User: Which sequence fits this backbone?
């Protein structure tokens, strides 16, 4: 994201820096009714703030198995 201002009026009182966040996800059909999936948010563990002084999660990993019938 590009640099932006930290207020509703979007005036340059407090400008926040720009940042990039990379997320990745994958799904694999293991069998006819079985699916394995995974997701990584903030893959490169970037430190950033969307709102000044409000932290954001570090790298987060999710996964699971899904059965459909």
Assistant:
């Amino acid at each position: 994201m590009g640099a932006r201002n930290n207020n509703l009026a979007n005036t340059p009182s407090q400008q926040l820096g720009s940042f990039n966040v990379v997320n990745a996800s994958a799904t694999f059909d293991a069998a006819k009714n079985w699916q394995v999936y995974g997701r990584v948010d903030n893959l490169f563990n970037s430190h950033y703030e969307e709102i000044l002084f409000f932290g954001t999660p570090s790298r987060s990993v999710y996964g699971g198995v899904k059965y459909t019938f």
Remarks:
- The two ends are 42 Å apart (CA to CA).
- Residues 17 and 52 are 10 Å apart (CA to CA).
- The longest strand covers residues 34-41.
- Residues 21-67 form one domain.
